[in-house]
Design goal:
This protein has 233 residues and is mainly beta. Helices cover 8% and strands 46% of the residues. The strands form 4 sheets. Strands 9, 11, 12, 14 and 16 form a 5-stranded mixed beta sheet that branches. Strands 1, 4, 7 and 8 form a 4-stranded mixed beta sheet that branches. The longest helix is centred in the first third of the chain and has 18 residues, at 3-20. The N and C termini lie far apart (128 Å).
Length: 233
């Protein structure tokens, strides 16, 4: 067999193998590499110093009141001394917090506090004795912008009042604001979200009992004159 014929046979064999065999597979695509952002380290906590005086509605100091500061999801609690003074050191990454002031016989009051990193923050706080009236009476009172706040997100100014019912029946309460009846409401129990301003409420009561009701208004910058009227039938 001569060399020319061998070459033809070899070419034919290669051609036949290529046609009859499997085609080479396509390369598997490789997804592009996406660089993940490097997480920033958490901001370092700063130690803030806060002091102030807790007083009642007459300006008298309130001894033995608890002052609880919200630090994210936890509370740090301090107490006032015999002159109503409190001092607190707060370690937090936040510049704003809420102080909740409580003492038996007083309305609880939540107050916003803006912390100053460069120096001591002075924040005086006020709480009120719980007012008590008898069913069938009227109560006139003022609600000031620096009162304690309440609500799901502390979006209302609040005052708490106890209504004493001497006998069983239906207790009806209504609150009115001088000059306008809108933007003021009553609530018994927790103030849930969303809150609907209800100027009047009626509840069944037993004899010789107290009903605790919160009077709420929207956050405003001026004092408001309010009247709570009650009846028992």
């Amino acid at each position: 067999m001569n060399a020319g014929r061998l070459a033809v046979i070899a070419v034919a064999a290669v051609t036949a193998g290529a046609c009859g065999g499997d085609l080479p597979s396509e390369p598997t695509p490789v997804p592009p590499v996406v660089e993940q952002p490097v997480p920033r380290p958490p901001a370092p906590a700063v130690t803030y110093r806060v002091r102030g005086v807790v007083t009642d509605e007459t300006g008298a100091p309130v001894a033995g009141a608890s002052v609880a500061f919200w630090m994210g999801a936890r509370q740090v609690i301090f107490s006032t001394d015999g002159t109503g003074d409190y001092r607190a050191e707060l370690e937090t990454i936040h510049r704003d917090t809420v102080a909740l002031v409580e003492k038996a016989g007083f309305e609880p009051g939540a107050h916003y506090v803006s912390l100053i990193p460069e120096r001591e923050t002075v924040r005086n706080l006020r709480i009120h004795h719980v007012m008590t009236i008898n069913a069938g009476e009227l109560l006139h009172f003022d609600l000031k912008p620096d009162e304690g706040a309440c609500g799901f997100d502390l979006e209302f100014w609040c005052r708490r009042i106890r209504v004493r019912s001497r006998s069983a029946g239906t207790l009806t309460m209504r609150v009115d604001r001088e000059g306008s009846g809108s933007g003021v409401g009553l609530e018994i129990g927790s103030v849930d979200y969303p809150f609907q301003f209800k100027p009047s409420l009626s509840v069944r009561v037993d004899g010789d009992t107290h009903t605790v009701v919160d009077v709420l208004t929207a956050l405003v910058t001026t004092s408001q004159r309010l009247t709570l009227s009650t009846s028992l039938e």
